[in-house]
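About this split. The held-out portion is used to measure sequence recovery: a designer receives only the structure tokens and must propose an amino acid at every position. Recovery is the fraction of positions where the proposal matches the reference. Here is one held-out target exactly as it appears in the evaluation file.
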């Protein structure tokens, strides 16, 4: 009797365990059908939308229509859906539909969709075609779509200035590409050819002219400023401390700008060592003044061969510093020779901290504010240095602020993380030795060993 009772108990326990297992499975199935949660535990959350993409989506305040031309293949369409769901999970006001590559030929042609897996984004009566359905391409297209207007940034040329079309180290082509990707129009401006500063220019950039401008050219720029134009003036150390010998002396006087004689030197060896800076004239900036331009800057910026500036605030203008050199820095008045440079006030050196960048604003009327930024360096935005620290973020933020595009300050075009691997020279040598010498030699020796064993057998 006891054996029968135990058998019944065991059977009952088994049925209860089975019922509990089925209940758990059913509950999990119900939860997966009714609730959707994604946890991204990858490094830098690579399977989730970047902060840049999220910030762009916050600016989408109308319905975004997404149309994709695709084959009738489940695998391809699922991949597209996964990408789109990343965006709709942040902003649900997205309408999405597929067009069949074989059946919807006429409609696809009307919508300018020609190739498989092309995407069309319609927003605010404008559209963009995305050829590759990746976060980078989609987000950058959305940045262009959400702009109400496309600001024009003009770079002054004809006097040895930094050239936005120059792809060499000293050029500004990286900055130009970044601006155009986000919907900003870039052009060069030679006043001898145009004889006028176009009135559609949002920002005029004067990037370190190496020779004096003609009096007529300077007059045109002053007229542009007096009419309320926005200006970014980047200057480098000049051989003479006389303002009259520098380019645009009249404009400098009107803006209250003067330069500290010499080149800024940073004496903080520990910080330079930490940042991998070898030359003392490459000056790091790690702290910024409270300003709309710098409010989102979190990393250091580097300024090679920069000059200190001083601002005597002109009438009706308001000046505000952006950042200074570190207190242990100074402006070296003598010619730079070697790395062992020491401060000497008797030779004209100026003790830090030194003002390196400042903004000027002037209220023209209740709806219009004029903006100017003055800086003592142009190298930081050149192709050779723009990728260091937050240099790219800084220069783009300055131009966005000057163009009155405050919502996009510090918002850069999306770039996929970890798209390249960099090895040191010893690591490259070790890899080459391993795969070109050690591994083949090991295979050869193993083959010889096997051959000898077989012969002995």
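Reference sequence for scoring:
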């Amino acid at each position: 009797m006891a054996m029968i009772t135990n058998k019944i108990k065991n059977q009952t326990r088994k049925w209860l365990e089975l019922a509990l297992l089925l209940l758990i499975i059913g509950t999990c199935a119900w939860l997966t059908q009714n609730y959707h949660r994604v946890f991204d535990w990858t490094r830098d959350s690579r399977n989730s939308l970047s902060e840049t993409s999220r910030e762009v989506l916050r600016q989408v305040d109308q319905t975004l229509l997404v149309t994709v031309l695709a084959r009738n293949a489940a695998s391809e369409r699922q991949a597209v859906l996964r990408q789109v769901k990343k965006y709709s999970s942040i902003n649900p006001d997205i309408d999405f539909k597929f067009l069949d590559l074989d059946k919807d030929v006429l409609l696809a042609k009307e919508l300018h969709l020609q190739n498989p897996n092309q995407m069309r984004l319609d927003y605010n009566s404008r559209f963009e075609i995305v050829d590759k359905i990746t976060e980078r391409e989609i987000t950058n297209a959305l940045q262009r779509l959400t702009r109400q207007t496309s600001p024009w940034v003009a770079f002054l040329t004809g006097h040895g200035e930094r050239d936005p079309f120059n792809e060499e180290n000293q050029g500004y082509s990286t900055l130009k590409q970044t601006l155009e990707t986000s919907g900003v129009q870039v052009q060069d401006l030679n006043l001898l050819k145009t004889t006028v500063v176009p009135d559609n220019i949002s920002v005029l950039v004067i990037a370190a002219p190496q020779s004096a401008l003609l009096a007529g050219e300077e007059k045109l720029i002053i007229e542009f400023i007096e009419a309320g134009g926005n200006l970014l003036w980047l200057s480098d150390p000049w051989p003479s401390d006389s303002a009259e010998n520098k380019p645009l002396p009249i404009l400098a006087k009107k803006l209250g700008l003067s330069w500290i004689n010499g080149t800024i030197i940073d004496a903080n060896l520990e910080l330079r060592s930490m940042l991998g800076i070898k030359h003392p004239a490459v000056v790091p900036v790690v702290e910024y003044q409270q300003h709309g331009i710098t409010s989102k800057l979190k990393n250091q910026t580097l300024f090679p061969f920069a000059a200190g500036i001083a601002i005597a605030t002109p009438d009706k203008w308001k000046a505000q510093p952006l950042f200074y050199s570190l207190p242990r820095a100074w402006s070296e008045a003598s010619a730079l020779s070697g790395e062992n440079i020491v401060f000497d006030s008797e030779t004209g050196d100026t003790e830090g901290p030194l003002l390196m960048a400042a903004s000027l604003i002037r209220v023209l009327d209740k709806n219009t504010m004029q903006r100017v930024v003055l800086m003592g360096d142009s190298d930081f935005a050149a192709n050779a240095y723009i990728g260091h620290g937050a240099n790219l973020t800084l220069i783009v933020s300055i131009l966005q602020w000057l163009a009155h595009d405050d919502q996009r300050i510090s918002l850069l075009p999306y770039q996929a993380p970890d798209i390249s691997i960099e090895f040191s020279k010893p690591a490259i040598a070790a890899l080459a030795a391993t795969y070109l010498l050690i591994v083949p030699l090991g295979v050869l020796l193993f083959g010889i060993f096997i051959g000898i064993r077989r012969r002995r057998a």
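Annotator remark: The longest strand covers residues 355-365.
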